[in-house]
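Box 3.1 A note on notation
Throughout this textbook, protein chains are presented in two layers. The first layer is the amino acid sequence; the second is a token string describing backbone geometry. Keep the layers aligned when reading.
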Amino acid sequence: MTDSPHHERTLVLLRHAKAEPPTPDRPDVERPLAPRGRADAAAAGAWLARQGLLPDVVLCSAAVRTRQTWHDVQSGITGAPPESGPAGPAPAIRYEPDAYEAHPEDLLHLIRQVSPTATTVLLIAHNPGVSLLSELLDPVGAEPEGLRTGGLVVHRTAAPWAELSRGTARIEKRHTARG
């Protein structure tokens, strides 16, 4: 196994953007994004486009706020300035009920199922699972307080998706999107 850059895979973890506060009459899974969250998610997409981090595969929790986050991230990516280059083919999107209220091991299991040909995967999920997954993949580099809403962390690995495990994907950069 070589460490040459073209064998590297990129995993982008994104905590959903700011959601509306919980209300007694609405299940948590149905909470929508707040207006600020929608702007932040679009800003996250624009940041991904500027970094050239265009996903081949998107794993997205099936909750309303994560779906809306992806929708706005996608418009942020495609609304990027033309000098950032073509957005390329549309990614494969998988809405995953198992990513809601998931433990980091559950999220890791979803990523391990990804096609070996995918080079960039975007996972949109919730705390604490998504922050704990980042910590699992890079115990040294992870932020102790975890991801904030709209927080992105970019992991790089030479391991195939199916072999991703503790300490195998170093953190390369992080960004908190604010629209």
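The helical segments are 35-51, 64-78, 104-112, 129-137. The longest helix spans residues 35-51.
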